[in-house]
Here is the input.
Amino acid sequence: MKKSLAMLDVPGEPNPTGINALKRKLTEIRAQQSEPESGMVAEVVRAVLTTISHELSAKESSLLREVEELGQMIANTKSEIAALRVDDITDHDIPFATDELDAIVEHTAHATDAILESCEMLDEVAATVTGEAATKLLAAQTKIYEACSFQDITGQRITKVVTTLKTIEGKVAHIIGTFGATAAAARVSTTHVASDADLLNGPQLPAHAMDQSDIDKLLADF
Amino acid sequence: MAIDKTMNVLIVDDYKTMLRIIRNLLKQIEFNNVEEASDGSDALSKLRGGNFGLVISDWNMAPMTGLQLLQEVRADNRLKTMPFIMITAESKTENVIAAKAAGVSNYIVKPFNAETLKDKIEKVLGHA
Here is the structure.
């Protein structure tokens, strides 16, 4: 902006009053904020257009108008992104989703180990049985062992999903970085009473969950 | 050709549950001498220091993958003819081709059943 205004200065001729006023305005904006908001830039461009429109060719005028529209578009996009609260995605939603997925893997692994342990105990029983019962027992155990391999496949699939989520998280963080901190600034702090739907969050992650004794203590306090 | 079920079998996977499943399935088909390794390099050192008749390995492991293990085995004069079965969830054509090119004896895609495991072992050891 500084450069384009300087270009309007004609050596040996006094600056038009409007341009001097715009220069002053830009200096004021710079003093207030090192990186002016796109809305401010659009405002200045609009003012430049109004002031010097009679000195510009149709092509220059059209170009400046496009710059103005572009500035407005960026300002609108920033507002829309702020309204979406995209930083919630990286701060809360994606970490929450990956933690939940990790918990699924952990819980299913424990369950699978328990099933395998029980099935191995059946081996001892199988050794004491003969005939058709032994055959049936062996077939049932085999089915259990085969079915338990779901854990490995599930774990690999979930790992893929977690990787994808982390990629999305990186891209969202990039968007936030590009559009600055306005998204966070646009947050509105609200306090509300939790509804029935708000309270239905499914099982808690082990690190955040209360165990039965905590709940008993809590109930006893009422 | 009769298969010697008393041979030592090395199973390789970085996932303990999977090792446990394969060990139990091998037991079901009467292979009782089973040793475990948790990744490629662990397997390689066990293979070099032991006497095994068959390797059953996962592909997706770190730091040494199943494919790298296979390549090391095939490059080792003492181990190069070792029957080697890859058990993996990687079922893309390029994976199978890469494994074949590296000299895999057979390839089982997860999830698998005991019958498939038995069938592949018989095919591999029958040709050994």
Notes: Chain B touches chain A through 16 residues (CB under 8 Å). The radius of gyration of chain B is 13 Å.
